């Protein structure tokens, strides 16, 4: 019995010591959070929801409720000025709408992408997602090596050669819209556009003919699931630890695995073709393989990096362009005078011809303005961030080194200090003779790490919109909302359901 009591005593003492250690660690952490507050509280910002979690509860609630978090950032920017802080635990993010600071930080390679954010894009709930691909690589040398290898797939000369594919895939969409117009059925435009942009990227980037306009594809569901998982993983640090989220987390993991397994199969087939001396296109898939080096035997790290870029280009090439086109159709339908002006230009440049040339795109200047104005109000990828390693002063506020700076083109595009009547859809803001926005419009980012595929995306968007305006009139089915769905990228929540009819030629 004495031994039992002695064991019980020492066991209880050990438990007490552990509890004291936990309490001391928690107290120490709270003191550190208080130190962070004191360090940054000279910077304006909204009241924290709680001492520890800061503004995280507000951001999680905005996401959970289906609202667009960037509208909250817009509200904070207008209330607190060109610099405001966001707290979450011991972390601080600085929202910046100062054009001079935007120019300084985004245009310089000395401010890297922040490791905290992109570490959460590396994998989703334990399954590798974007990894160290072209978008998510934080190491400048690693990024630069990939970018240099990828550049030839986006040269003007190569892009000119893609016009045939752009035309062919857009014609498939026109055929589908013709059927809907003839049968007087409603067109779910975002769904159709998602299919055609996926059809384009799989053909142009990876050499695969999937005919997705007329067929359902598991790719679309997988991409959407991954994007939703990405948002949850970024905005709620405890998402994966909540029991109720486990079914969704399982779906996200399976979606990631599906995309990477598909990429592995397509890469393997292309590498075999290269090794057999077959003539292969100098497309993105070929460049991805080149990024792994010229060795016969590639390492596991090489394989992972190739798959990282496969997933990156698949998602970036499909989702963003589809949403831009869907929002463009929404605004044209809401602004018939703009639609009429765009149609007149298309008629003047194209007449009745079906095959749009590269030179035709250069003459569709007003349509280009329409697409730019669409991205001002509805940037597909609304925000980006950089890490400032040393102290910096922005708009009169001293920002400590090691802080993450957030730049939001959605917020900038809707502020009246940058754009008069910002909620009015006015393509003439981007007229060639109009004053150019000064570092407050960056839907494709800025500087060396701006989007490699922006010219590709805008060529594709112009071809699709030109053909649509040439042949059809469209109007929105009444009763739809104009709400924006925030899934990391922005997309129209309603799906943009339209009535389609043939134009009187």
From TrEMBL:
The keyword Acyltransferase does not apply. One of its GO terms (cellular component) is dendrite. GO terms for molecular function: cholesterol 24-hydroxylase activity; heme binding; iron ion binding. The chain crosses the membrane at residues 6-32, 117-137. Heme binds at residue 451. Belongs to the cytochrome P450 family. This is Cholesterol 24-hydroxylase-like. The lineage of its organism: Eukaryota, Metazoa, Chordata, Craniata, Vertebrata.
């Amino acid at each position: 019995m004495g031994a039992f009591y002695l064991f019980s005593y020492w066991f209880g003492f050990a438990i007490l010591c552990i509890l004291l250690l936990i309490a001391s660690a928690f107290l120490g952490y709270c003191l550190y959070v208080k130190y962070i507050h004191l360090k940054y509280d000279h910077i304006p910002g909204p009241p924290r929801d709680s001492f520890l979690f800061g503004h995280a509860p507000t951001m999680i609630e905005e996401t959970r409720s289906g609202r667009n978090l960037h509208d909250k950032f817009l509200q904070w920017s207008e209330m607190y000025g060109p610099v405001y802080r966001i707290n979450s635990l011991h972390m601080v993010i600085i929202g910046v709408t100062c054009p001079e600071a935007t120019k300084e930080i985004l245009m310089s390679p000395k401010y890297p992408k922040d490791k905290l954010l992109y570490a959460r894009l590396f994998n989703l709930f334990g399954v590798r997602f974007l990894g160290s691909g072209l978008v998510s690589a934080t190491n400048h040398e690693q990024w630069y090596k990939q970018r240099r290898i990828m550049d030839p797939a986006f040269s003007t000369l190569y892009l000119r050669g893609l016009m045939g594919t752009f035309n062919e895939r857009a014609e498939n969409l026109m055929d589908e819209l013709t059927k809907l117009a003839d049968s007087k059925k409603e067109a779910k435009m975002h769904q159709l556009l998602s299919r055609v942009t996926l059809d384009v990227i799989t053909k142009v980037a990876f050499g695969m003919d999937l005919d997705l306009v007329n067929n359902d594809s598991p790719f679309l569901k997988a991409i959407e699931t991954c994007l939703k998982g990405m948002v949850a993983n970024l905005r709620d640090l405890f998402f994966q630890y909540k029991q109720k989220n486990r079914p969704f987390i399982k779906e996200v993991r399976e979606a990631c695995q599906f995309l990477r397994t598909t990429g592995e199969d397509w890469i393997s087939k292309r590498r075999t073709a290269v090794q057999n001396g077959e003539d292969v296109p100098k497309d993105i898939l070929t460049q991805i393989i080149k990024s792994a080096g010229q060795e016969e035997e590639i390492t596991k790290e090489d394989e992972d990096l190739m798959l990282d870029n496969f997933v990156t280009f698949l998602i970036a090439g499909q989702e963003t362009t589809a949403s831009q086109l869907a929002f463009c159709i929404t605004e044209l339908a809401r602004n018939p005078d703009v639609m009429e002006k765009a149609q007149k230009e298309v008629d003047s440049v194209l007449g009745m011809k079906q095959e749009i040339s590269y030179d035709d795109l250069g003459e569709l200047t007003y349509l280009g303005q329409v697409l730019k104005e669409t991205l001002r109000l509805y940037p597909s990828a609304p925000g980006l961030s950089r890490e400032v390693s040393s102290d910096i002063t922005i708009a009169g506020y001293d920002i400590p080194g090691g802080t993450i700076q957030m730049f939001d083109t959605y917020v900038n595009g809707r502020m009246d200090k940058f754009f008069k009547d910002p909620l009015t859809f006015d393509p003439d803001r981007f007229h060639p003779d109009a004053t150019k926005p000064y570092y407050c419009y960056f839907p494709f980012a800025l500087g060396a790490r701006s989007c490699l595929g922006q010219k590709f995306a805008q060529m594709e968007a112009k071809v699709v919109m030109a053909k649509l305006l040439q042949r059809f009139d469209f109007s929105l089915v009444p009763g739809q909302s104009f709400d924006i769905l925030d899934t990391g990228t922005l997309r129209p929540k309603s799906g943009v359901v339209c009535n389609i009819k043939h134009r009187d030629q």
